[in-house]
Write a structure and sequence with these properties.
The chain is an alpha+beta fold. The chain is built from twelve helices and 16 strands. Helices cover 38% and strands 20% of the residues. The structure holds alpha-D-galactopyranose.
């Protein structure tokens, strides 16, 4: 079943349209966003789809392919603490838009989350942004029409997550979901919201980027994320700065010497050095010095593991295994506490035999690509409008092939204890062209 099927089954009739938004992988710049720092995410081909129709009243009905339940709430009753569970990420969006002064009516929405849940790949932001895109179009808000308009949607989706879902996250994920462009990483300056699209064409250098799902589940609403954030804010207050971004790398030692708390010293060291690593990574990418990018990945992981303490044994093992297998560099990505690691290496195909992962040099992407293309046409024909949050980004609309490809790939995530995803630079290609992404 997909979003349209769920819509028909649970609500009856056809949705007005289907909107989608991608998850993201952060290349580097972890736990910097809420410190006014720099981050460098790319969009994933994995998306969340929202089939939606407007209603004539103030009711929001939400269902999902993954959970099967239907949650119904009056928009007038949504507020901090009033909606629980996954539907809070949906209900929060019209609430936040209304708070920002936009007139938003009721709607029925069926979502199909194709971004792995709880894997540090921003499934929650993809959900918020897909719903936000639907609401914008259904209510004629025009919030997908320019980067400035999208910035409004970014901030509404972030508020939904912070205030209604209760996750005190920093906004990088929503920015990535709505602002990333194909074949580019998004250099995001969280101090002033400035963005720059940095070419990310590692494929031309014979490199791929692997995202390894350790299956170690993570959550951002269990207090650990908030505790890191609070430590940073406390350190910033002690140092007399608005955010840790104000601490230049050259002033780090002096700043550390003014912090009495050992834990806060380590948190600050991570944030300040990580921001510096983002700048260095962008410079290395621009020069095509990928070995240097790998070193920066490695240093980021050590910093997140030892100073920020957001890694976990599964991540450390996967990162070490990646390096042992010849990766140029490897690091955990996302919030941590169990999120998947990221590695950059020469193209390699992994197969499992006798319980062991072996590397093969066989071409991995093309078979699946052609399989996706030759899939029977299964997309609903009743859709009158489709809208993709990448439209206008140079990403094109979400095509049927991509949608089928997403469906084809998804089961791979659920069937094995340990999966290697060969994402290559294809993760930032227009989805309509069915990206060369292999789930092995
Ligand atoms: C989560 C949050 C982001 C960011 C990352 C860590 O993904 O949603 O805002 O803080 O963790 O970099």
């Amino acid at each position: 079943m997909d979003a349209v099927g769920a819509f028909r089954e649970r609500f009856g009739g056809e949705p007005e349209g289907v909107w989608s938004a991608p998850g993201r992988v952060n290349l580097i710049g972890e736990h910097t966003d809420y410190n006014g720092g720099l981050a460098l995410p790319i969009a994933l081909p994995h998306r969340t789809y929202a089939a939606a129709s407007p209603r004539g009243d103030r009711v929001l009905r939400v269902t999902s392919v993954q959970t099967g339940d239907v949650v119904e709430v009056s928009l007038d009753e949504v507020g901090p603490g009033t909606v629980g569970g996954w539907s809070a990420y949906v209900a929060g969006v019209p609430w936040a838009l209304a708070q920002a002064g936009y007139a938003v009516g009721g709607l029925d929405v069926a979502v199909d989350g194709r971004v792995p849940l709880g894997a540090g790949l921003s499934s929650s932001a993809a959900l918020e942004c897909a719903v936000g895109a639907a609401i914008s179009d259904l209510n004629g808000l025009g919030l997908l029409e320019s980067d400035d308009a999208r910035a409004v949607l970014v901030s509404a989706c972030r508020r939904a997550e912070n205030d209604i879902a209760g996750a005190p996250t920093g906004g990088m994920d929503q920015s990535a979901s709505l602002l990333c462009r194909p074949d580019h990483a998004l250099l995001l300056d969280c101090r002033d919201g400035a963005t720059e699209h940095v070419p990310f064409g590692i494929g031309a250098a014979g490199l791929v980027l692997l995202v390894i799902d350790t299956k170690a589940h993570h959550a951002l609403v269990d207090g650990q994320y908030g505790a890191r954030r609070a430590a940073c804010e406390s350190a910033a207050a002690t140092l007399g700065v608005e955010t840790l971004r104000e601490i230049a790398i050259g002033d780090l030692e002096g700043a550390l010497s003014r912090l009495p708390d050992e834990v806060e010293r380590r948190r600050v060291r991570h944030v300040v050095t990580e921001i510096d690593r983002v700048t260095a990574t962008v410079a290395a990418l621009r020069r095509g010095e990928y070995a240097e990018v790998g070193h920066l990945f490695d240093a980021s992981h050590v910093s997140l593991r030892d100073d920020y303490e957001v890694s976990c044994p599964e991540l450390d093992v996967a990162v070490a295994a990646a390096r042992d297998a010849g990766a140029l560099g490897a690091r955990m990505t996302g919030g941590g506490f169990g999120a998947p690691p990221l590695r950059s290496c020469r193209p390699t195909r992994w197969r499992r035999s006798s319980g062991v992962w072996n590397r093969h040099t066989a071409e991995g992407g093309s078979a699946r690509r052609s399989a996706s293309r030759s899939s029977p046409a299964g997309a609903p024909t009743a859709i009158r409008r489709r809208r993709d949050a990448s439209e206008g980004r140079g990403g094109g609309g979400v095509g049927r092939a991509a949608r089928l490809a997403a469906r084809d790939r998804t089961p791979g995530y659920t069937n094995a204890a340990y999966r290697v995803l060969v994402a290559a630079s294809a993760q930032v290609r227009p989805l309509g062209s069915a990206p060369p992404l292999s789930m092995l």
